[in-house]
């Protein structure tokens, strides 16, 4: 199984330890989505932008743990997306992003370099 990560699960980020048992396959960019800053972590929603991410191969146990973390309470829903590494799961944010800061660059790692205007 493959998974797309775009925020705190990426390498050298606060929750990257969840990916310890995963195999990094490479970087990727998904079109037709927008990235929002939700505070300590981001959310991706359908839109007109691009989001920079990483693709990993994970086992069923890791995917189950991520599902418990991300889909609890309906905050995220998994969607299957094409990548150069094969189809991979993307966690799409299910709640309103009204009033949240859009990360125009589409890159969580550049969130602090945003123009506040």
Automatic annotation (TrEMBL):
Domain Gamma-glutamylcyclotransferase AIG2-like: 3-109
Pfam families tied to this protein: GGACT (PF06094)
Superkingdom field: Bacteria
InterPro entries in UniProt: AIG2-like_dom (IPR009288), GGCT-like (IPR013024), GGCT-like_sf (IPR036568)
Protein name (database record): Gamma-glutamylcyclotransferase
Organism: Erwinia aeris
């Amino acid at each position: 199984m493959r998974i797309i990560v775009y925020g705190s699960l990426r390498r050298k980020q606060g929750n990257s330890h969840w990916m310890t048992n995963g195999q990094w396959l490479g970087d990727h960019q998904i079109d037709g989505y927008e990235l929002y800053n939700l505070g300590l972590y981001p959310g991706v929603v359908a839109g007109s932008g691009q989001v920079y991410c990483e693709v990993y191969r994970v086992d069923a146990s890791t995917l189950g743990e991520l599902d418990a973390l991300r889909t609890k309470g309906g905050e995220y829903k998994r969607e299957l997306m094409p990548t150069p590494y094969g189809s991979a799961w993307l966690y799409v944010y299910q709640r309103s992003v009204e009033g949240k800061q859009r990360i125009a660059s589409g890159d969580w790692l550049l969130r602090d370099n945003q123009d506040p205007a």
